[in-house]
Amino acid sequence: EDAWRVALVAAASGADFTARARDLGVVTAQIHTALAHALGTSEVTPESRDALVTSMRHRYAAAAALVPELSSHSAAVDRIAQSVRDVRWPPLQRIRGDYHLGQVLDVPERGWVALDFEGEPLRPLAERTQPDLTARDVAGMLRSFDYAAGSVALAESPVDASAWAAACRRAFLDGYASVAGEPDADAVALT
After folding, report:
1. Helix (H, G, I), strand (E, B) or coil at 88
2. Do 152 and 2 form a contact (C-beta atoms < 8 A)?
């Protein structure tokens, strides 16, 4: 069963999901370690930094086009995009891409199994396979816990699972850090 369905059931019932979220953090860090070992890493160049900052700006523009209310934040987004040029960036590497609960299976007797490594399907393949920040995958999964909580809040019998999501995010980060070390605060800020 996919992790999205498993998480929704847990969120709706208020079941403790922190051990499972922590395990998912461990698996995610193991994936990043394996990808770095197999495909290598690369230091950030001025060109790769510019490309990632441009990508951030394009993502914001696309979101603002869909949700015009976001346009009121343009000045702040520009300041943030400009400021990320001045932080220390970790090495870039191949990441999972488009990482969320629906991209992971809960396999009995085996645990979490990530699948579908093609990244965001609407982006060109050449762009999806470029080295990127591992924090992008981490942020995607953290956001997915929030989406699960939001889904049960909108259900026929609404449930406030915001505390559930917060506990899952902390547990996921703890699991990730147990393998990869503490997330770099600058890297998290970049995503």
Report:
1. coil
2. no
Where does the chain have alpha helices with state H? 3-13, 18-39, 46-66, 74-83, 125-128, 134-153, 162-180, 185-190
pLDDT in tens, 102-146: 999 999 999 999 987 666 767 777 776 788 889 989 999 999 999
Scored b (16 or more CB within 10 A) or e, 64-81 reads beeeeeeeeeeeebeebb
What is the spatial distance between Cα 99 and Cα 137, in angstroms, rounded to a whole number?
A: 5
Distance between CA 109 and CA 190 in Å, rounded? 37
Kindly report, residue by residue over 81-105, the tens digit of the pLDDT.
888 878 888 999 999 888 999 999 9
State the Cα–Cα distance between residues 84 and 137, nearest whole angstrom. Answer: 18
* pTM for this entry: 0.84
Q: Catalogue the long-range contacts made by 36-42 (C-beta closer than 8 Å, 24 or more residues apart).
A: 36/93, 36/94, 39/93, 39/94, 40/93, 41/91, 41/92, 41/93, 41/131, 42/91, 42/92, 42/93, 42/131
**Cα 147 to Cα 72: distance, rounded to the nearest angstrom:** 24
- Structural Rg of the chain based on CA atoms: 17
**Number of CB atoms found within 10 A of residue 130's CB:** 18
